[in-house]
Amino acid sequence: MAKPSREWVVRQADRMLAIANDKHPDTFVEDCLHDPMKDIALHWCDEIVLKMVEASPQEQSNTNDERVSGFCLPQYKTADGRTFIEVHTDFYRRDCFTVLHELGHHLQNSDGELFCALRAFDDKADQKRAEEAACNMFASKALIPDSVIPELETHRWNASTVDDLYHRVQASRPATTIRVAGLLPPGAWVTFINQYGRPMLRAFSDGHKEHDIELLPVEQLVLDTFKDMRREPRRGRSDRYRNEMTFCIANLDKPRIPRTRPKHYTRISVALSPMSKYPPCTFIMGGH
């Protein structure tokens, strides 16, 4: 078989989700939404053993949103026949992703159909890439299930949708960025800027991701305009308006803020994502 496509990864992850829900129909979805760290270990204890250890400084300094700190020892290599999962703890929401990523490895190693789907790839490196990609997709969809995604047409979404979802689930902001981007129309993207103003991630609707990025000219323009407009007197505008704005840009290559809405344009929206102890993060959504 050729290298794993995005369609293959989605199919494999969806099979994994179906198996997890079949095994634990009354608890799996709620476990992922409530407290995956505790509840997955509790309800899957007949199949897995979960151990937490503190992440090393090198692991903690890795800024990759889907960086997984842990490993999975398959059930056929352990003394008691249960899969051993070790999670190197960093911060809670990333740890939740790691737990579910490693649970994905367990599923692909223990279910015959999932195992055979992996072995259909001729190249061992492609098998590994496929397995890791499916585990990432499984963890993302488990943490942000379809049931919590707002019932809106995607062309009506804006950057504040990412923040709204983030506060309803246990996924990190980068993981939520990727999940939302994958639901957008072709050509659309979401950019995540951390609390220190550093652009960390740009995720596209086709699954492509860029890390440790520089802002696009159109992103810099709308972000600067957003900041300037927030400094203006409120003039009756709501706090929500001051925390999110949408701009209509006619030319992404030579962007400018128009005085009136162009006949043909691309929507670029900006939204703040408040934090309790730090300055807010920022989401930018484009092409939607």
Question: How would you characterize the overall build of this protein?
Answer:
By secondary structure, the protein is an alpha+beta fold. The protein has 2 domains: 6-143, Arc Repressor Mutant, subunit A, CATH 1.10.10; 150-286. The protein is built from 11 helices and 9 strands. The strands form 2 sheets. It has a 6-stranded antiparallel beta sheet with strand order 6-5-4-9-8-7, sandwiched between helices. α1 crosses α7, α2 runs antiparallel to α3 (36-43) and α5 crosses α7 (124-143). The radius of gyration is 21 Å and the shape is elongated. The two termini are 34 Å apart. The mean pLDDT is 90.
Helix content: 40-55%
CATH class descriptor name of the largest domain? Mainly Alpha
CATH architecture call of the largest domain: Orthogonal Bundle
Uncertain regions spanning at least 5 consecutive residues? none
N- to C-terminal distance:
34 Å
Number of domain modules? 2
Shape category:
elongated
Sheet with the most strands, sense and barrel status: 6 strands, antiparallel
CATH topology of the largest domain: Arc Repressor Mutant, subunit A
Domain IrrE N-terminal-like: 93-173
Pfam family, one: Peptidase_M78
Protein name: IrrE N-terminal-like domain-containing protein
InterPro entries: IrrE_HExxH
